[in-house]
Amino acid sequence: MTKAVWSGIAAAAAVLFVSAPVFAQSTNIDTKTVTISTTVNARAKLTLGATSLSFTDADPDTTAVLTATPLSVDVKARTTPSGVVTLTVSAPNLTGTGGTIGIAALKWTASAAFSTPGTMSTTAVSLGSWTGSGNQSGTQTYTLDNSWSYNTGNYATTVTYTLTAP
């Protein structure tokens, strides 16, 4: 039993002796700092669910308005807290082998963030606007007035979407 007590005391003394230099070294502390910084610039990203849409021909007496497949619209914008983000659309007249169809015959309805219905124009028309950074998503469904006065042929136009985040 005496041997066990002396062994325990010897072990405790060894731990104290070995750890003593560690305690002495802990008073020597060296601290450094690093400054982290970044610049967050205004950004705007527009994603459309398709690159082309088409209308199927129909009898104007039974189908006064032709409807295209809904187009998904996704906007991401980074701006100041008071920055107004705007999304506009415009297009020239539909032209083709039959002549011209005035662009005002092209209209749309919209959902979610882009809930304002509109009529296409050769000048920019608002599809939506909001204040501050964030994501906005919705759909836009184009319609085309169907008329007996249109000449036969294939018609096309290019719609330009403009997203601005100051």
What is the CATH class designation? Mainly Beta
Query: Compute the gyration radius: what is it?
Result: 35 Å
Taken in chain order, the helices and strands follow as: HEEEEEEEEEEEE
CATH architecture grouping: Sandwich
Core attributes:
166 residues, Immunoglobulin-like, 1 helix, single chain, six-stranded antiparallel beta sheet, mainly beta, 38% strand, 12 strands
Q: Strands, helices and their partners?
A:
Layout (H helix, E strand, L loop, with lengths): L1 H24 L17 E6 L16 E3 L3 E8 L5 E7 L3 E3 L2 E3 L4 E5 L7 E2 L5 E7 L2 E12 L9 E2 L3 E5 L2
Antiparallel strand pairs: 1-3, 2-10, 3-10, 4-9, 4-12, 5-6, 5-11, 7-8, 7-10
What does this 3D model show about the protein?
There is one protein chain. The chain is mainly beta and 166 residues long. It has one domain: Immunoglobulin-like (Sandwich). It contains 1 helix and 12 strands, in the order αββββββββββββ. It has one helix at residues 2-25; strands spanning 43-48, 65-67, 71-78, 84-90, 94-96, 99-101, 106-110, 118-119, 125-131, 134-145, 155-156, 160-164. The strands form 3 sheets. Strands 1, 2, 3, 7, 8 and 10 form a 6-stranded antiparallel β-sheet that branches. Strands 9-4-12 form a 3-stranded antiparallel β-sheet, with no helix packed on it. A 3-stranded antiparallel β-sheet has the order 6-5-11, with no helix packed on it. β7 (106-110) and β8 form a beta hairpin. The longest helix is centred in the first third of the chain and has 24 residues, at 2-25. The chain is elongated and about 95 Å long. The chain starts with a helix and ends with a strand.
